[in-house]
Each structure stands twice: as C-alpha cells, then as structure tokens.
From TrEMBL:
Protein keywords: Chromosome partition, DNA integration, DNA recombination
Domain Tyr recombinase as annotated: residue spans: 97-273
Taxonomic classification: Bacteria, Pseudomonadati, Pseudomonadota, Alphaproteobacteria, Rhodobacterales
Tagged with keyword Isomerase: no
GO molecular function per UniProt: DNA binding
Organism field: Phaeobacter gallaeciensis
GO BP term (any one): DNA integration
InterPro entries for this protein: DNA_brk_join_enz, Integrase-like_cat_sf, Integrase_catalytic, Tyrosine_recombinase_XerCD
Matching SUPFAM superfamilies: DNA breaking-rejoining enzymes
Protein name (database record): Putative integrase/recombinase
Superkingdom of the source species: Bacteria
PROSITE patterns with a match to the protein in the record: TYR_RECOMBINASE (PS51898)
Coiled-coil regions, chain positions: none
Length: 281
C-alpha cells in the first residue's frame, strides 16, 4: 500500500484507514487466540463474525469490508490465498446522505458565536464562498490569488484525485474576511492554527472546527456540510449543473446533479401547475 501511495494510486488517508482496520482484524480473538496467529486463509464465517462486531456502526462496517476485500483480492491475484474469503460479504449499508447541509439558522448561530475577525469566522466564510474541501482549505491562500480585468480571482487544483481546476472570483464577504486577519504566514495560507502556522493535516483542522461548532451549539455540523449548503443555495439561485461543477471542482455532471435535481423538479412542477390556471373548471 505504501508503494501504491508513492505511485499516486492510493491516498494516504486510505492507507491509514486500512492499516487501522486490518490491525483490528488481526487483533480479533477466535477460540482463545488472535487472528494474527492463524493462517491468512481464514474461513469466511470468521470474517463475518468479526464484521458482526460492527453491526451498530454501519460506516465502520462498510470500511472494514472494503479493506478486507482489497487485502484478499491482492492475495487471491497473487495466489497467496484462494479462494477469496471476503468475496460476496454484504455490507448491508445504505448511505444516510452524508454530512448534514447547514441551514441559514446554522450559519447565523455560528457567526453569532464567532464574529467577524475571528479565524473561525474566516473558516466559515472560506467554505461558504469557495465550496472547497477541507483538504484544500488548509493550504489555499494569497498565493492562489490573481487579478484579471480588475477582478480578484482565487484558483487552485483540488487535491482530490480526478477533480478539475477551480477558479472563482473572490466575493466581497470573503475579501473582507481575509483582510480582517492581521496574522499572515510565509506560505500565504488563509487558515492558520492558534500558533499562527498552517494546519498540519485535514484531521487537525477538522478537530479545531469541531470545537468551534460545539462552542456554537452545533455539535453535529461539519465543514463538508457547508460545501453541501453552498451547492444547494447555488441551485436555488438558479445556477446550472455545470456552473456548480465549476465551483465545486466536479469532473462528473452526475455529482453536481444532487444539488439541482430537486430544485429543477420544483421549477418544472411550478411551470406545469401554472398551465392549469387557464383551464375552465
């Protein structure tokens, strides 16, 4: 996995997740002994027994099955373990829709607790007016700015594999929030830790943002939820699917469709019902 990471075929976060999952699998006890003491070709029922310990954690269950499938697929292809004992195991997992989109009231509560001029306020504004991911928010900044025809632009290549280059104008709320920060780092990053340095990782930023959310009585909100809120608001304001793709850095139209399809359905319904107005009844 480390070689695949170096080659750019797998993300560092995926390697970390699989190492954690497989470590737990090896530490699972069967008949008084840990799985790491057994042969790699364990019966499928042993794998299912381990997965059943995660029955109340559907997300962890899904990730665990994915990691085990990847490991045994690797082993099967090279003749180490045949047949693949993880093949065919159901995840019995259904997505609940991911991160909860922020409402207007959520945004108001956060700004009331973290007013203009604070790093928390800047973070919220960056997510709202760039719709960037955490993996990008922790490094984009003044070095990504440019000016063209009198318009100040922010452009960056998202770190997520397969994403397209994003370039959007810096809106007045974001420009004001950036200017309000007196602390500047040599790397030009907008978002800085309490030590005045860039965040070391996406996880370190998420932990800080969770603290800001708890302080604002929004314990179940996340940065990704702001990104989703931005997508919904763009759709409500009439942005097309391809316009949202340009802002979010999506390479597939279907990814941005989740923001436009419900809004478009409402518009179509309104147009259709309007046609009934002239009917004699």
């Amino acid at each position: 996995m480390e070689a695949m990471e170096t080659a750019g075929e797998i993300k560092a976060a995926t390697v970390k997740q699989r190492q954690h999952v497989l470590g737990r699998f090896l530490d699972h006890e069967v008949d008084g002994a840990l799985l790491r003491e057994y042969d790699a070709g364990v019966p499928q029922e042993v794998i299912v027994e381990f997965i059943d310990t995660l029955i109340e954690k559907p997300g962890a269950r899904k990730n665990t099955i994915g990691s085990l499938r990847a490991m045994y697929k690797f082993a099967d292809e090279r003749g180490y373990v045949r047949p693949n004992p993880a093949k065919g195991i159901s995840t019995t997992y259904r997505s609940a829709g991911g991160a909860t989109p922020w409402t207007v009231d959520d945004l108001k509560k956060f700004r009331e607790r973290h007013p203009f001029g604070t790093m928390a306020h800047l973070a919220l504004t960056v997510f709202m007016f760039t719709a960037c991911r955490v993996s990008d928010a922790i490094w984009i900044g003044r070095n990504n700015e440019s000016t063209s025809n009198g318009i100040r632009w922010l452009g960056w290549q998202p770190r997520k594999k397969g994403s397209t280059y994003v370039e959007i104008p810096i809106m007045p709320p974001l420009a004001k929030a950036i200017a309000a920060q007196n602390v500047s780092h040599v790397d030009g990053c907008y978002l800085l830790s309490s030590h005045g340095t860039p965040f070391s990782s996406s996880d370190s930023f998420r932990n800080r943002f969770k603290t800001w959310c708890r302080e604002a009585s929004l314990p179940d909100r996340s940065p990704h939820g702001i990104r989703k809120a931005a997508g919904h608001l763009l759709a409500l304001e009439g942005a097309t699917q391809h316009q949202i793709m340009a802002v979010h850095g999506h390479s597939q139209a279907a990814t941005s469709e989740i923001y436009t399809k419900d809004v478009e359905r409402r518009r179509l319904a309104a147009d259709a019902v309007a046609k009934l107005a002239s009917m004699k009844w």
